[in-house]
Design brief:
This protein is of the alpha/beta class. The chain has eleven helices and 13 strands.
């Protein structure tokens, strides 16, 4: 089996200097290709990679097409059996590719990620995916090892290989045939939650998504947008609505209306904390969502057809509200949640 480790770069020379060495060290063999996809950088990062790591293949794009568009263009002619979408700010570990590939083969997964730990605090799970992602009854996403801003210790926790609802795009393994079947990432997302949308579309077609609990990688996070960026708030809220409208089989106007109300509560909470820019970002996200409803409904028809043709995979859905459990019942750990309420 051949694997292509695809790193998307945009003016990230400092990240490449820090993290690319581990990728080259632990990913170099005859069955693995390392590909740098450059989103129109102007910081000479491609020149640095070419000079220091000539074995890394470089594909230059003419502009910044975002996370989704950049990967779609960069992988348009991919020949490897499996692809790894790897953030440029991720440090990998020995044997990581073989171990995740083994998990995928053993469990029959179409996509999978290792555990994502915090590069700055290596014993703590990181925000972007932790040990596998889930979705609650209202369409809110959460992870094993990280509920909202509560981060758990990674030592001895959530180490099983298992099926989940979505896997982190920070280090996402996906079969090339599955990638091509669904047309890659949705470029309209630009960045953030596009990997959740990808995983959900795979599940609409009956595919399995998983986490390889015995493999760790270390993610800096906020490499392109700060964790506290108002633009990140905008993208997260807009894209969450888009992926719900696009993929949720049980969609009804009341479902989206409920989410809009909950978003409004979140915006009010930001206002009360004098985080006005975040509150305004939610308002902008809703306006952007309204402008994209018609185009998203066209995509929704495709997903409903896929669900009607296949047996949709619901594993990883949580039948309760993570909002109520976390903010009102004080359940700050994934292990606090009722296991019997997961599909």
């Amino acid at each position: 089996m051949t694997t292509c480790v695809a790193i998307l770069n945009w003016n990230g020379i400092e990240h490449l200097k820090t993290y690319l060495p581990s990728v080259v060290k632990y990913s170099t063999n005859e069955s693995v290709e390392i590909l740098l996809i450059d989103n129109g950088s102007t910081d000479l990062s491609c020149d640095w990679v070419a000079s220091n790591y000539p074995g890394v293949k470089i594909k230059k794009l003419d502009s910044n097409y975002g996370f989704a568009g950049g990967y779609n263009r960069g992988l348009s002619d991919i020949k490897s059996d499996r692809i790894v979408l790897l953030n440029s700010d991720v440090e990998v570990t020995k044997g990581w590719i073989d171990k995740v590939n083994s998990t995928m083969n053993d469990l029959g997964l179409s996509a999978c990620a290792p555990r994502i730990l915090d590069h700055s605090s290596p014993t703590i799970f990181e925000y972007a995916g932790a040990s596998g992602g889930y979705i609650d009854k209202d369409g809110f996403m959460f992870c094993a090892g990280r509920l909202f801003d509560s981060f758990e210790s990674a030592e001895g926790n959530y180490t099983d290989d298992k099926e989940v609802f979505w896997a982190s795009g920070a280090a996402l393994f996906i079969d090339t045939i599955a990638w091509q079947e669904i047309g890659g990432l949705d470029s309209d997302f630009f960045a953030h939650m596009e990997e959740i949308d990808l995983c959900w579309r795979l599940k609409n077609r009956g595919k399995k998504i998983g986490v390889s609990g015995g493999v760790d990688v270390f993610h800096l996070g906020g490499g392109t947008l700060s964790k506290s960026s108002s633009q990140k708030v905008f993208l997260n809220f807009r894209n969450n609505l888009l992926l719900l409208l696009k993929n949720e089989r049980g969609f009804a106007p009341a479902f989206i209306f409920k989410r809009l109300i909950l978003d409004g509560i979140a915006a009010t909470r930001f206002l009360l904390k004098f985080e006005i820019s975040y509150s305004f970002s939610i308002f902008k996200a809703h306006m952007a969502f309204y402008s994209m409803i018609l185009s998203t409904l066209r995509k929704r028809r495709i997903e409903l057809e896929a669900q009607n043709t296949h047996n949709p995979n619901q594993v990883g859905r949580y039948k309760k509200s993570i909002i109520i459990d976390y903010f009102f019942k004080g359940k700050t750990k994934f292990s606090d949640l009722d296991n019997t309420t997961f599909v």
